[in-house]
Each structure stands twice: as C-alpha cells, then as structure tokens.
Hints:
alpha+beta, five-stranded mixed sheet, four-stranded mixed sheet, globular, Extracellular solute-binding protein
Amino acid sequence: xxxxxxxxxxxxxxxxxxxxxxxxxxxxxxxxxxxxxxxxxxxxxxxxxxxxxxxxxxxxxxxxxxxxxxxxxxxxxxxxxxxxxxxxxxxxxxxxxxxxxxxxxxxxxxxxxxxxxxxxxxxxxxxxxxxxxxxxxxxxxxxxxxxxxxxxxxxxxxxxxxxxxxxxxxxxxxxxxxxxxxxxxxxxxxxxxxxxxxxxxxxxxxxxxxxxxxxxxxxxxxxxxxxxxxxxxxxxxxxxxxxxxxxxxxxxxxxxxxxxxxxxxxxxxxxxxxxxxxxxxxxxxxxxxxxxxxxxxxxxxxxxxxxxxxxxxxxxxxxxxxxxxxxxxxxxxxxxxxxxxxxxxxxxxxxxxxxxxxxxxxxxxxxxxxxxxxxxxxxxxxxxxxxxxxxxxxxxxxxxxxxxxxxxxxxxxxxxxxxxxxxxxxxxxxxxxxxxxxxxxxxxxxxxxxxxxxxxxxxxxxxxxxxxxxxxxxxxxxxxxxxxxxxxxxxxxxxxxxxxxxxxxxxxxxxxxxxxxxxxxxxxxxxxxxxxxxxxxxxxxxxxxxxxxxxxxxxxxxxxxxxxxxxxxxxxxxxxxxxxxxxxxxxxxxxxxxxxxxxxxxxxxxxxxxxxxxxxxxxx
Length: 620
C-alpha cells in the first residue's frame, strides 16, 4: 500500500498537523522517511547495467478466458492483475519493492493535497504515453477512476470516499473526497491503474464496440513495459518487452524488467507443473509453498548437477493471514460459539511436525509481524476505543488474553476436542449416534471445504479428521481453478482457505476485507461474510485515525474483535520465500528483504542459458 510523503511522516507519527500540505511530493512514506528521501534515483540493490534479453518461462495451473482483470466475470490471463497494472498497464505511482508503505513516481510525477485531506491532485508526467504513441491524458485518468469504481470490487472499497475526479489542467487531475481526515487516501490514489479511454471506447477489428464491463480476449492497448505478443486461449500467453517503453529510464525501472519475453504456459494440475519444472524448458523459476516438497522432492538430476538452484530468501514484510474462512452467509456459521468450536479442533502443532517439517509458525493475529498485532489484555487508548462497544462484544475480550489451542502433548487432543464439544453444546449442537446434530431439529453439522489444489488437500485433511472425531460431517471438494475463482467471487462455499495480506499502515483496504457492504459485494475479499457494526466502526476509525498512536490502537482493537469472534480458523505463516530456479539467471548480489526477492531485477545470462540448452534437450 502507498502512504504519505516523507516530509510529513515524522509530523504524522507525532500526531501533528501536516505542515507541508499543498506542496508537491514524490517519494513518500507514512511510517517514517523513505531511505531515499524525495530525490529517488534508483533502487540501491539493482544492477543499473543489467543486460536486456532472453525469455523467462513460467507455468500457471489452470486456464484463462479474459484479458480484463477488473471485473468479477472471467479468469484473467497471467500477466494481468486485479489490483494494479500487471505487465500491461502503469499506475499513477509505483509501490516500492524495498520499503513498506512507500511509492515513487510513474505516470504521475508528483501529487499534493490540502491540510484537511479533502482532496488530492496528481500531476502527470508529460512523457507518459500508450503503446500506440498517444499521450496518457487527464481524461484517461478520470475515465479509469470512474470505470474501476463502478466495476472493480477492490477499487470500489479502496476508493469509497473518493467522489469524483476532475481536470484542473491538461496535466493535473484533482480527486474530491466526501469526508475529511482520511490521511491515507491522498497517497493511495497513486495505486490507481490508468486505462486507455480511446481504445476501450473504440471498436475492434470487426467493427464491434468494445465493452470494458465484459471479459475479452482481444489484446488491450497498454502503457507498461510489456505487451501481448501472442496467445492460445486457455493454454498460453506470451508477453514481449516494448522496445520504446516510455518509462524505461524512470528511477523505479532502472535495472529492472530485463526479460525480452515472458512466456506463461498453462497446465491443468500442480503435479504436472512440478514434473514440467524438473525437466526444464517450461518453467525457469518455481516459488515453492509445500514444506514436504521443499524438504524431500528437490533431489532430481538437475538439482544434483547444480543446474537447478534451491534458495531461501528471508522477508521482513508483515505476514499474511492464512486461514480457513468460515462463510457466515451460511446459517451454520452464524453462531460465534460454533465457530470457536471449529477453531479448537485445528491441531497446528502436529501438522507442523508431521507435514511441514517444523518450517511454519502459527498465526495469532490478523496483523502478524507488526506492532499492529494485539496482545495481552486491552489497555490504554485501545481499551478506550473498545469500551464504546462493550455491550456488543464478547465479555471475555476484556478479561482474557486471546489464545489459540496448542496441541503440545499426547493429552492435548482429548482436551481440546472436549472443549470443542462443550462449545458446540452451548451453541445447541449435541452428539447423537456419533454425529454432531442440532439438538432441536436433528440436522447434522455438515461442512464442505472448497479447494483448487493438492496443497488444499494437505492442509485440510488433518482438520477434517479431527472434526470427524467429534461427529462433524466435514469433507473437501477440489475443483478446477477457474470454477474455484468463480465460486469464491460469488461466495458459493462453506469454507475456503483464504490469504489476506496486510501492510504496516492499514487503511481503506480494510473495508474490502471486513465491511458489511463488502460482505454483499461479489468479488470482495470479505470471504467470511462479516456483517458487524462494531467491525465497520473500527475500520472507519482506522481509516480516519488522527495519528500513528491512534491508528495502532484502533488496529489492535479491530484485531482483537476479529479474533474473539472466531470469523476464521487461523493457520500459519513462513517468514521466508522459497525459490528454486534453473541456473540461467544473473541477479544483483543483494535482494530487497522487504519483498524477499525482486525477480524483475534478475536477467538472463546468455552463457548459462546456452550451457543448459546444450545439456538438457528442449531447454532453451
């Protein structure tokens, strides 16, 4: 997420009035000054002389049917992004790769805002242009804002308080807000992706008018470093670097985006994708998520020969919340005690020991790895905030430290499964004939976990086994990725495994995660269907926090309310990125620890690639 100008950061941290409002700003941060100041020249880890060329091959599991990622319908092709510009489009500003909550100029060279945070003005770089040579205009920005606000659930929640965008001049666009004091909002408007109005409002080769609200397989006009060179619907898409890309010499681009070609080949399942990687040619780099595979599968011939390198990159960014998302749109999950019972049956410790080779750490917060994670009992400003809602919150929130079950002994399973049964009983469910049923209606407690990969099966199976021990009829259904995306977008599931990333300065995106409005908006990330006035109020408090201390306290409060309501069953995280790659790359000695690795800073080494091609048939 992007945040405030570095010259304002210390003032904000101290809770002072912004003194530099209405001045133009470029590099920015809310947490503290960017290490580059406002005179950003390039990232300090990149090789500014990195050679351009070569082909970067990737494998994608599933299929695709659209080149429009900003609508709910369709499965977008690799290289597109539902938030941000992906390979095709530039955004107003570019999120930093090596610092949290920092961004640098891209289409916009600077921005400013008044001291009451009632608007924001962005000034476009006069060099910015589309791939057809036409300039990127203020009209493009205004049209893009309107289209995304109307059609993209993410952008709609993100920019909920932005009412309109108007032209100030031929290079300046001003965004108006319906509330003052949203300190984050002026800056995160830099995340706005800019789309070509003249292309989308034009006609295709057959003379048919294009429709930005519908899926399409016509390669769109773009503005970024790559464009679509070729594709085979559902099976392959090839991106080509644009030789006269307008932004190639911008500070955020120096030493990056070095591959001439990026090829994505679609494969139907993860096992086939793994086999493709071991043989070479289709996948040059594999991010690994499976602990078992990382520990035991990387022993194929190319690994032993040193032609595939296995490397761990440590990260310093906040950890995402990965969890079983319990869909409260289903009556089964609307009772907090029943949700708590489900949480008590999840045995992380045994899974970590027997399946994950002790490589994972249990997640205890929705804001893991930051000062924003709640702990102990509420006190100080956080307690003041929560007191306003005491009669609407679980009473133990104020008297007990939130703790997840720890299966650390042979007796633990019996202990926690009994607690789960007791919680189910309080919620009106009893065991009869070995089945958990509703005490009044006899209806069985039956849930289905919806998944799309073998990894989902690994994660879900131990939990299912424990649930069945207390009579819960739990099953797993694995479906193809496209069907999964459609069902997830339409909230057509009992339980899914969801991942929600956080930043060190949460703000407007929290609406998309937790708000009542998002719960009823297809395509939002409120996977659990939370509709809670207290959560809505706390989200607004975060968005309109008066200073850093207020933000931290409000986030602690939100974290605690989410945890004590058991909206999800938290799983685990891993503070490293596992990458295995064919030894065809050159890369900077240093990689950005915040992200772990910046693949865009790597390049193809022709000599290494030639040596691999000579050794392995089909690898080129």
